[in-house]
Known about the structure:
This protein is an alpha+beta fold.
Amino acid sequence: MSNQKFAFPEAEIAGVYRAIHQRRDMRHFKPGRIDTEILHKLLDAAHHAPSVGLMQPWRFIRITSDEMREAIYQLVQEERLLTADAMGEREAEFMRLKVEGIKQCSEVLIAGLCDHRERFIFGRRTLPEMDLASVACAIQNLWLAARAEGLGMGWVSIFDPVKLAKLLGMPEGAKPVAILCLGEVEEFYKSPMLVEEGWAKERPLSELMMENRWVDTE
Ligand SMILES: Cc1cc2nc3c(=O)[nH]c(=O)nc-3n(C[C@H](O)[C@H](O)[C@H](O)COP(=O)(O)O)c2cc1C
């Protein structure tokens, strides 16, 4: 029971943790459309993310053309093969994994970094990648809001950003960082699909926590 003056009511606190724990990266979707109002709410949640120096470096491109969706899908397939090739002995195992749901999902959004980011120095002089961290915060907001609304989302990063930027007509300096697949799902995976498929194991927090000094975690 929280007795903090500014805490949300218990049920709302539980809702926040529930969205966090039950969010999954989804690659299987049901056919259908997402209500425009809900889509707007999700994007608005993304837009309320924190950003370095209030830079708001995120840009979202909603893909509504079938031809564009197909072209994006092809770019991902191209990179999937190159990724598999780079996997060495796990190549065949990787090729068996489902790594995207671009064709089945209801909505495809591209999340990208804006151009002219060099103008923003606050918080980025020594850590320029804080722009990317800010976009990731926006994507996570969208992911959690989608889970709360009962919608699945998949983050696809298997693509060549130069080729995708060209396809989308992005200016010099702007960069796509995620292909986001959104839609209704039959059910949410109980644990990460990569765990369910035996590809990877999750590590407990206790193994990744340190006190005062770095401890080797490998
Ligand atoms: C930055 C980032 C990029 C990702 N790219 C992909 C991807 O290209 N394809 C994919 O299937 N999953 C991708 N994922 C999803 C992860 O595989 C997934 O988050 C992880 O296995 C944990 O599963 P969970 O999100 O269901 O908890 C990505 C996740 C993040 C955070």
